[in-house]
Design goal:
By secondary structure, the protein is an all-beta fold. The protein contains one helix and twelve strands; from the N terminus they run E-E-E-E-E-E-E-E-E-E-E-H-E.
């Protein structure tokens, strides 16, 4: 059985509460260790989100940290709105801003998070968490991006389960 386990916790902090999730229940059915993830749900925008800690290809199961308050580094797209299925407006990313798991077909490869509450089809994106700082010196880096399209490396506190 092929397994992959997240081994680098240098840029993360917070609690760990794991659940086993079949690949078929993940929005991205080819999960990658260390990436944010979203479980499928009947109602758009209500899905549980978390961080993939390990994958077990033989069982087609991912171990997901669904703990609220877990902070990790991820790339965040600064798109705010879409029009005619393409990005229309962008904004600077600041501490405390909400971050969404964005299923838009227009997202850059490997980027799952944005600042847009709706995807490029107008469907609700799921609230993943909020921009956070792990260390005080990181606060001086914000705001990131601006009014043009960009993808920024951000620290995000995941909303997780039970929030």
């Amino acid at each position: 059985m092929t397994e992959s386990i997240l081994a680098n916790y240098e840029n993360s902090s917070g609690p760990v509460r794991t659940i086993a999730v079949p690949y078929a229940r993940l929005t991205d059915t080819t999960p990658t260790v260390g990436n944010p993830c979203e479980l499928t749900s009947v109602t758009a925008g209500t899905q549980l989100c978390g961080t993939i800690l390990s994958t077990h290809a033989g069982d087609s199961v991912a171990i997901v940290n669904a703990a609220p308050g877990f902070v990790g580094n991820w790339e965040v797209r600064n798109v705010l709105t879409y029009a005619a299925a393409v990005e229309a407006t962008w904004g600077a990313i600041n501490v405390g801003d909400p971050v969404y798991y964005d299923n838009s077909a227009t997202m850059p490869a490997g980027v799952y998070l944005s600042t847009s509450p709706l995807d490029n089809t107008g469907a609700a994106n799921t609230l993943f968490g909020y921009i956070a700082c792990i260390a005080s010196e990181d606060a001086a880096l914000y705001p990131l991006g601006g009014i043009t399209a960009s993808t920024q490396d951000c620290q995000v506190m995941q909303r997780g389960a039970g929030a």
